[in-house]
Amino acid sequence: MELKKNSGLTNDIIFIDGLWGSGKSLLGPIVSGMDRVEKVKVEHIYEYVAILSHLEKISPDAVSWMLKTYGDLSQYNNIIGREVNLRWNDDSGLAVNPNMFTYIKRLFKGEGDHKITEINDNNIALNVMSHMLMLVPNPIFDTYGDRVKIIEIVRHPLYMVPHWVAFMERFDSPRNFTASFHFKGVKIPWFVAGWENEYIEASKIDKILICIIRLYEWLEDSTMNNLENGNQILTLSFENLVMSPSKPLQELEDFLGRKHYPRLTSLLRKQKVPRATISQGRGHAAYGWNNNSDKSEAQVYEQNFKLIKTNGTSENVDNFLKLIEKYNKTHPSILEKFQ
């Protein structure tokens, strides 16, 4: 028998997506504050299902059923105040996102089918932060159709390296929940399937350089392959968001067809936007973020470059520099002058 779910909801579904270390957290509160958009949720189920589908580990009917069912359930739970994250400073926590009291008041209100009508009539958007979903987006587009909008955050490759270093040091931890294989007794992330030997034979920094290079190539191919969904994909660079936010914020408003938070300026101030230097704002210390506000941009760039130059092989460093050159042409920023 085929699993089937007729979705009862028709609301928009927004994904804030990016590779590890791309700076997705910056955009979570900004999108959460927009007109009729729910507070951001960090829910891995969407990327897990998409990855399992890509790896052919799950049947197509199970993919469709799971995505439709969970998308509806998650939004229904939102609207009745269930699963509100009270961890104060989490990306999806109440303190970080606007409209705190809206979510608190929902705890004391009712539930029922009329809440489904409320979501649909007002097109209240589900807002999800995902990881690397744009590498394997077909199940998302196939399941949700024109309901889905993917905002892809990209970041200068060199500034992603410290995050990856910290992440890879924790990769074997029981608290790491990345979809993974075991190959020759070594745990490898799902996206390494097909070049396992190259991965396990490389040093830590070389692993990171190779991964970022290959994933940016994969991301470019995936974006090109989804040109028919072009009006459902918006790519924004982290550098422009934090240094010159006016244009990307307008693009975001146009893309989603929703107005920004009325007190957007105060919201941006909390995120330290605009910034004097790119690394000046909030971040996750557990994932390699350091507040470099006491350093010039040139010093931060040199610090990151020294990390790869000292520890990577010349071949991988050269290929990484080619990636940086390509990134600078596609997403020009103040970092161009340090290349």
Unreliable stretches, pLDDT < 50, 5 or more residues?
A: none
Q: Briefly note the structural class of the backbone.
A: alpha/beta
- What's the number of helices? 14
State the end-to-end distance. 57 Å
Q: What's the order of the H and E elements?
A: EHEHHHHEHEHEEHHEHHHHH
Can you count the beta strands? 7
Radius of gyration, taken over Cα atoms and rounded to an integer in Å:
20 Å
Q: Helix proportion of residues, in percent? A: 40-55%
Query: In which order are the strands of the major sheet placed?
Result: 2-3-1-4-7
Q: Would you tell me the overall average pLDDT? A: 93
Q: Quick recap of the structure?
A:
47% of the residues lie in helices and 9% in strands.
What is this structure's SSE topology?
Elements: E1 13-18, H1 24-32, E2 41-42, H2 45-54, H3 60-79, H4 100-106, H5 113-122, E3 126-129, H6 138-144, E4 148-154, H7 157-169, E5 180-183, E6 186-189, H8 196-201, H9 204-225, E7 233-237, H10 238-243, H11 246-256, H12 264-270, H13 297-311, H14 314-330
Parallel strand pairs: 1-3, 1-4, 2-3, 4-7
Antiparallel strand pairs: 5-6
Please explain how this structure is put together.
This protein is α/β, with parallel strands linked by helices. Helix content is 47%, strand content 9%. The protein has helices at 24-32, 45-54, 60-79, 100-106, 113-122, 138-144, 157-169, 196-201, 204-225, 238-243, 246-256, 264-270, 297-311, 314-330; strands at 13-18, 41-42, 126-129, 148-154, 180-183, 186-189, 233-237. Strands 2-3-1-4-7 form a five-stranded parallel β-sheet, with helices on both faces. Strands 5-6 form a two-stranded antiparallel sheet. Strand 5 (180-183) and strand 6 form a beta hairpin. Helix 2 packs antiparallel against helix 3 (60-79), helix 3 (60-79) packs across helix 6 and helix 9 runs parallel beside helix 14. The longest helix has 22 residues, at 204-225. It is globular and about 60 Å long. The model has no long low-confidence stretch (mean pLDDT 93).
